[in-house]
Amino acid sequence: MKxxxxxGLLIQGSILAAAGIVTKIIGVIYKLPLMxxxxxxGWGTFMNAFNVYNIALTFSYNSMPMAISKLLSASIASGNxxxxxxxFYHSSVFGVILGIIASLILFFGAGFFERIxxxxxxxxxxxxxxxxxFVVTLLGLFRGYFQGHGNMVPTSVSQVIEQIVNxxxxxICVMVFCRMYxxxxxxxxxxxxxxxxxxxxxxxxxxxxxxxxxIRFRRDRRDELRKSEDVKENNVLIYRAIILTIxxxxxxxxxxxxxxxxxxxxxxxxxxxxxxxxxxxATALQGFFSGQYSQLVNIPIAVASALAVTLLPAIxxxxxxxxxxxxxxxxxxxxxxxxxxxxxxxxxIGVMARPIIMILFRGIASEAWKLDLVxxxxxxxxxxxxxxxxxxxxxSILQGSGYMKKPxxxxxxxxxxxxxxxxxxxxxxxxxxxxxxxxxVLFPLIIMILNIISMKKYLGYSLDLKKVFLKPFLxxxxxxxxxxxxxxxxxxxxxxxxxxxxxxxxxxxxxxxFLIFKTKYFTRDEIFELPMGRTIISKFHIAE
Length: 544
Fold this sequence. Notes:
mainly alpha; single chain; 2 domains
């Protein structure tokens, strides 16, 4: 039974990770025409508005699914379905109130945020996104419900639906608005606002799917609910548990998101006010960082986020039962799986940065200075894939084990260092956009280190760096050499970037997983728990 549960954890995590990768890829693809239509300044305007929107989401969505999944996991461990439903009901009331507050702040404060961000034209975008905040809050409630029950499929499907509808709606709205306001001073403002309508439509479509899934799920559990004993627990105690769970997660997520918000302010102030850059040029540089760089590094990071979401209820469940050994085994499995995917993702982006930009962003590739800049940002920041992945997973481990405040403190310490670094580098050096990348790597690195120290101190769990990191690091390094070599050779023979890139990626994937299995990174039992584990064992003839 235990093996089946562990296997379920990794399979559910893999499903959510796959959905995360798919949605990120769709996100990159659909944003290509958006970037071309909006231009560098228009895209920078949209991303400035989106960064403010992300702050609002920390109060209503970003922490909501994980917080509710943790609450429900602890309730499910008691075996009482009525108690679980009561916890979900009161959590939903609390979440809806937070969503309404965040939406109102964003709607009525749009002009204020436009002024402090020193980016004209974002107020209208923020007002559209204010409606999205409330819709996404409801979305987070239902995702947390399913995740708390260990079912990641509804969340995964809803993410794909959300991104597809977002992609189609955003591109249609941007094209329509840009034609309507062609030659007008409002072209950039209206174009960025059009992209925001896509975010709203995607969230609404995903919410409809989850509501239908919830109704079906509840209908299937009707008998189990009827057999459960009536819950006599005080509502005040339930709300106390909700507040003690959700508030630390909100603060933790706020610290993560607020860094980007203040980065924009510091960056714009130092470049425009102190160094006298043109405002449009500074906005365009922000767009390169928030757009091409962040979109690409976030693809592999999405895997870690999915694993963290899956891990949290599992860790909470085992901690509630007092199964420390089972908890530690789950932690090790997810840490190894994170390492397995984060290292090659980081190396791949670092080694193939230039051809990736040339293939995906042809508008940038047509201008040498833009190609050099964005490629350079990826060369400089590829390690953020690893640092963000492990900071996310280790935060989830601590919170799932009941230590809600420690990740908040660790994030706050890192944020202070991060903001000081951004200020110094943007004001006293000529690094400009590179300063944001350097700080972006160090911020999660500090969190990761502090989290690992906290895990040892509070959980008695010592992370075996050699066992978790060494083989993926060596295999990824070898993969990077092979990948780059194949790319250069094929490019020299064919002269075609896309053909060379494809050949290099195929060889990279084959060589990496060959090395991983040959170095016996996973035991036979661990491989068996992975998706398609039996097939892998059979193909590679892995013995006991």
